[in-house]
Amino acid sequence: MQTEKILGGDMKAAAQLIRGIEDGVPGKMRELKNLFPHTGRAHVIGLTGAPGTGKSTLIDSMVHDLRKKGRSVGILAIDPTSPLSDGAILGDRVRMQRHAEDKSVFIKSIATRGHLGGLSRSAFGIVTVLDAMGKDVIFVETVGVGQDEVDVMRLAHTTIVVITAEMGDGIQAIKSGILEIADIFALNKADQMSSDITLNKIKMMLNMRQLRKEVWIPPVVQTSATRGQGIHELLCQTQNHLVYFKSQGLDNYRNQKTLTELTTHFKKILVERALSTLELKKEWQTIMERINRGEIDPYSAAEELVSVMLKK
Length: 312
Known about the structure:
By secondary structure, this protein is α/β, with parallel strands linked by helices. 50% of the residues lie in helices and 13% in strands. A seven-stranded parallel β-sheet has the order 3-2-4-1-5-6-7, sandwiched between helices. α2 packs antiparallel against α6 and α4 crosses α10. The radius of gyration is 21 Å and the shape is globular. The relative contact order is 0.11. About 4% of the residues have low confidence.
């Protein structure tokens, strides 16, 4: 049975289950149900930020440091969807070559498949698998498209927002969007001359948060992932945040995570069953033809389909 193999750390069994979760293979949900009671031990760290800020390279450096300490690691990298294959555009082995053969590091790239918010619909299930495998730390890297990257805060214990001095109007973007989800700021490529200016701008914004008497003020860690600069300090700050996080109680986090997971799976099951019912009765095809002929708009059609479904 796959469950026992995964609980024993079997990477092949985990990879097969993850592929099944992504593809919606019937029966794989049963395996997830069996694994769920064995989760809750891993420290889940989310990384988000604009494309080109060096998120993947930063994870690669942190994994290198963690492995030297004997920690096992899972990596879930969420990429844009290929319009041809419906899979992830970047491969999971391309990002972190030096860890590809390490049996204590599990790397997986998945596609968003149209899901907004920076994550994939299957992300929660995949993190469940990695957690059940016994991974000490799980990194979740979002697709990196900007201000919609908020789902990660519902999945991760600690959220790192990665920025660089060369982002241009990136600081304004942070004000508008992802500032509120940051537990830690990683000012990457800190060897650039303009990094001090960016650092001061961020600290100024954080001082405004401090005036609101927030308990946790996100630290700003200057890093250079390619040089290994600031990586140890960044990992120390993730541990500091985890300690704080646990001291505040886990109820709020669990409620957010549970609500997101429950809503996601509820919608998926509801839509699949509804479409199946409607397709069997040929009502779906009929109403599509009516839209194409201009007899009804898509919005009214959707309402009509829901009414039909609820009457069955």
